[in-house]
């Protein structure tokens, strides 16, 4: 029996005419899609959607920026402030600044991240090639106008400190500096994580809390070294030289322990309880890696490393809030 035909001619021209008029969804069979004149690749994105930007910015690590800023406010002797500059900084240090930190890092390390088992989840995004351009544009759009506005609003010292932090993070990830691939400079550049602690004092005209600031710088250098230990195999395979690939697992564990020891010593005159919390958590995980010096052990300890800012920050924060509420703290 002859198949059903269209109004004019055979069934095949009629089917083609229908396919031509349809929007040609992507789930059609490949043979049909090849005949579809309207079927073409989707236009490239200009920007990434907000949900994807949030994943790339690693919200679990925002405590390293906004938590540091809030602690800086408490260290000035204020429980809170309604100063417009500080509130603007607080907003900027959420998605925009963390996207600058981790978005650029993920762009520069896309090939290494593709081989890293810990990427692709809460520990960091695994970027697709088509996301590179939209991520660059999104990062620039979210950061450049806000940095310019803050530079016009904040006092010069606060502006210089904020721009220094941004420059260090950009230099960490991107050439020609790319501190990440320069052993020891990779960790030393991470002092940028501590700089938000000084911003409230500089914005409000209060004394800079030097001892906590230097302690946080030391902690940041040590934490970077410790966290890099688990990436030794991937970094060596990619030809990336870091403090961890240079010192090896045992050496970098000892190096991190030295920085954690210094951080606690700097905190001791200000808050012995906070110093003890830092030594117990950070020093403890460094000693555990020294006992079993292997990248796999570093990977198992990494979740503890992730929560150390929450643990040590909570110990410091509870004390500060208690003293401020009782009127027993007026700043350093």
UniProtKB/TrEMBL annotation:
The chain crosses the membrane at residues 61-80, 86-105, 146-172, 192-216, 247-267, 273-290, 302-325. It is found in: Membrane. InterPro entries: Prenyltransferase_related, UbiA_prenyltransferase, UbiA_sf. One of its GO terms (molecular function) is prenyltransferase activity. Coiled coil: none annotated. It comes from the Bacteria. GO terms for cellular component: membrane. It is a multi-pass membrane protein. This is Prenyltransferase. The lineage of its organism: Bacteria, Thermotogati, Deinococcota, Deinococci, Deinococcales.
């Amino acid at each position: 029996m002859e198949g059903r035909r269209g109004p004019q001619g055979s069934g095949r021209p009629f089917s083609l005419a229908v396919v031509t008029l349809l929007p040609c969804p992507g789930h059609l069979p490949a043979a049909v899609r090849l005949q579809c004149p309207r079927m073409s690749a989707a236009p490239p994105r200009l920007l990434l959607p907000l949900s994807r930007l949030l994943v790339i910015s690693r919200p679990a690590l925002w405590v390293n920026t906004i938590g540091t800023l809030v602690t800086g406010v408490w260290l000035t002797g204020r429980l809170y402030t309604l100063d417009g500059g500080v509130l603007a900084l607080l907003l900027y240090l959420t998605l925009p600044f963390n996207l600058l930190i981790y978005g650029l890092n993920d762009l520069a390390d896309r090939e290494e991240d593709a081989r890293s088992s810990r990427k692709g989840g809460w520990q960091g995004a695994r970027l697709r090639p088509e996301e590179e351009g939209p991520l660059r544009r999104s990062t620039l759009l979210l950061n450049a106008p806000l940095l310019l506005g803050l530079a016009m609003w904040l006092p010069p010292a606060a502006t210089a400190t904020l721009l220094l932090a941004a420059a260090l993070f950009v230099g960490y990830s991107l050439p020609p500096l790319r501190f990440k691939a320069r052993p020891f400079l990779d960790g030393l550049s991470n002092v940028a994580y501590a700089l938000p602690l000084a911003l409230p004092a500089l914005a409000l005209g209060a004394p800079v809390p030097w001892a906590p600031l230097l302690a946080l710088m030391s902690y940041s250098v040590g934490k970077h070294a410790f966290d890099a230990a688990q990436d030794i195999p991937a970094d060596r395979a990619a030809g990336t030289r870091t403090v961890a690939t240079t010192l090896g697992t045992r050496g970098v564990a000892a190096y991190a322990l030295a920085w954690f020891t210094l951080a606690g010593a700097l905190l001791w005159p200000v808050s012995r309880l906070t110093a003890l919390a830092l030594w117990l958590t950070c020093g403890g995980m460094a000693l555990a890696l020294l006992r079993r010096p292997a990248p796999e052990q570093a990977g198992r300890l990494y979740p503890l490393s992730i929560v150390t800012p929450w643990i040590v920050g909570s110990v410091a924060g509870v004390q500060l809030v208690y003293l401020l509420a009782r009127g027993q703290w007026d700043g350093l």
